[in-house]
Every structure is written in structure tokens, then in C-alpha cells.
């Protein structure tokens, strides 16, 4: 099948602003994914095309892109679903470094702000810290995050204010707030109760729709909001 | 960005919520002004009331009713999800319910508003 692939290109050393470039490519709709097309452009048409990718199997979270107007992982998005005209652009709302590569520093700063690690100052046990299956199930959904930034960069609240910690940071806070072994829930809730925390969520659901791991992100955000309210009452 | 991103029902629900919210706020400003005119300039107030009774005024009133109805119903949808976060998994169905209620309430109200107008014309 012949594909008309449009890519939003930008070279900071040459271009004043990003521009679209088209590539005519042959693709197998049954097996090819958007990442295959990007490789074909880079290998056969223009070696300067710049994009991130690592595992190519939807686990590392490197190749989240704006594909046909929605944030998706290039390695998971099948050509069959997209049709003959495909547009690929960098993740919205993040500064573009070159072509499809965006600056993720702000995204990871927000992630670090919520202390995404286990905090427990009790005596270190000889063996693992045990947990019941029920307690483990409480935060199972939010353990799936691969930090691809598809959610945060699809959020209109984040586009409006970059300081908003964003859905990904809240998901990763949720993963520890509801972990029975963790002791820093109050500190995380304090951070997320601030100006740039959960109250910026407008339940728009772009994050939930964009998540390549199918995490119920809006639900996680609202559970954190509820925890903040319950802690205060 | 807002136009370029192809969000789903959730983004549309939010966009309509914002637009209707701004429209309601604009009406409130107008309403404060027209009530102020009762004391400040009764003649202008009377002229304004005559305008409200014209076809254009009635269509504006009808649009205001639609904005209030959508904003209220979708607001309840958001409140319900705030109180019971697992319901976010059914946010699309809840939005369709909003539109169903919107039509169930909106259609009779429309017939009342425009029916009264048509009768006032003596047709």
C-alpha cells in the first residue's frame, strides 16, 4: 500500500520554524507500524531525520509522537488503523529540540517532584517487605507507566501551564501514595495539593485516551484528589 | 494546539463546558448591567426589554437556556466522577446521558419558549 507520510521537520540550525515534509512510501498495512515508516525515511530518504526510539516494542516509552492528531507510540501504531495519509509531529506542548525530538527535562523534573520511590524509615527487614494481594491490587494500574509523556503532553491544562506537574507525575505519585509499605503519602499529597498539582485537572480524558499502557489516568488523578480532601477533613 | 489535537468525547465535553461557561458569564454581565439600568436609566431599560422580546432576543434567550442546561448537566457529570472516581471508566456513557437529558428537557422548553412567541404574534 502506498502511504503519504507527512513529518513535521525542524532543524534549529537551518529553520526559523517547523515545516511539513512529505514522503511517498510503500508499506504493508498488516505488519508495518509508524516506527517502520520513520526508519524507512531515515534509511532510504533522509538520514538527518531525528527521532527517539529504543526497544521498538512499546515498553521503553521513547517514541511517543503526535500521530494523526493523537499522542501514540510509533512502535505500537499500526498502519492499518491510520489509512493512506499519516501525519507525524513531535509531542505537543514540549519544546522541540530537532525534528521529532522534544526536550523532556521539564517532564522529568515534575516526575521527580512527587518522590517516585519507596519511602520507609522503619528498620530494614531481613527479607522483602511483604504485602497482601489486596494491598498490591490497590495501586496495580499505576505501576504500568513507562514515562513516555503521551499523557502529559496531550493535556490542555499542561499546554496552558507548563508548571502543572501533569498526569504522568500524578500517576507515579499514586503508585506510592496507595502502597501500604510507603510512609511518605502525606508529603506527596502536600505537593500535589499545591497550585501546580491535581486541581489543574479538568477531567478532559485526553491523558487516559493517549496512554499506550491503558492506565485509567483520570481515575488515578481523582483518587489522589479525594485522598487530599479526606486527609483535610 | 487545541484545534490540532484530535481529542475524544472527553475533550469535546470539556470544550462545550468552557464555551457555555463563558457564554453564561457574558449573560451575567449583561444582566447586571440591565438591572442596574432600572434605577439609572429606566428608558434604556425599557428599550432593552423590548429588544429581548424580538425574535433575535428570543433566540438569544433560547441559546442561553441551552448553555445553562448543558453546563449544569455536564457539571453534574463531573461532580459524579469526582465523588466516585471508578465512574471515570464510563465517562463517555455519562456524556451521552448528559445529551439525552439535554434533549428530554430542552425539547419541551423549546416548544414552550417559541410557542409563546408565536402566540404573541397572533399567528
SSE order and pairing:
The complex is a heterodimer of chains A (233) and B (123).
Chain A: E1 2-9, E2 19-26, H1 34-45, E3 64-67, E4 70-73, H2 79-82, E5 85-89, E6 96-98, E7 101-102, H3 105-113, H4 133-137, H5 156-160, H6 166-177, H7 185-192, H8 206-210, H9 217-232
Parallel strand pairs in A: 1-5
Antiparallel strand pairs in A: 1-2, 3-4, 3-5, 6-7
Chain B: H1 9-40, H2 42-52, H3 55-83, H4 91-120
Helix pairs in contact in B: 1-2, 1-3, 3-4
Main attributes of the structure:
heterodimer, A: 233 residues, alpha+beta, Ubiquitin-like (UB roll), Fumarate Reductase Iron-sulfur Protein, Chain B, domain 2, 5-stranded mixed sheet, two-stranded antiparallel sheet, 7 strands, 33% helix, B: 123 residues, mainly alpha, 3 helical TM bundles of succinate and fumarate reductases, 4 helices, 0% strand, elongated
Low-pLDDT stretches of chain B = none
Which architecture of the largest domain in chain A would the CATH scheme give at its second level? Answer: Orthogonal Bundle
- The helix tally of chain A amounts to 9
Give the termini separation of chain A: 60 Å
Mean pLDDT score of chain B, rounded? 93
CATH superfamily of chain B: Fumarate reductase/succinate dehydrogenase, transmembrane subunit
Strand content of chain B: under 5%
- Please report the number of helical segments of chain B: 4
